[in-house]
Design brief:
three-stranded mixed β-sheet, transit peptide, transport, mitochondrion, alpha+beta, respiratory chain, about 35% helix, Znf_CHCC
Length: about 110
């Protein structure tokens, strides 16, 4: 059903029918899309004075949880967080949230 809708939209020229037309539409600023994205990414990767997001999140120690399940929302403010993810903590190594990368471990009280 979705493919029929897509085909109908392409035929009606609401959506472009080829990659070439799409890339022409996305370069109205006169900058080829691939060059712009590639240069931006390369420029960001060259700046070694700043840490990458993954380096920053790895500096946060694993969060200890009393139960077997952790509920991660990414932030206390819902506008800044992500969809809630329930994470099972049955393994010995820290469990990682797939959205934000925070790590959780079960706090064993022995």
């Amino acid at each position: 059903m979705a493919s029929n809708l897509l085909k109908a939209l392409i035929r009606s020229q609401i959506l472009p029918s080829s990659r070439r037309n799409f890339s022409v539409a996305s370069t109205q600023l006169g900058i080829p899309t691939d060059d712009f994205v590639g240069n931006h990414t390369a420029k960001w990767m060259q700046d070694r004075s700043k840490k990458s997001p993954m380096e920053l999140i790895n500096e946060v120690p694993p969060i200890k949880v009393d139960g077997r399940i952790a509920a991660c929302e990414g932030d206390t403010n819902p506008a800044l967080g992500h969809p809630i993810e329930f994470i099972c903590l049955d393994l010995n190594e820290p469990a990682i949230c797939k959205y934000c990368g925070l790590r959780y471990v079960q706090d064993h009280h022995h």
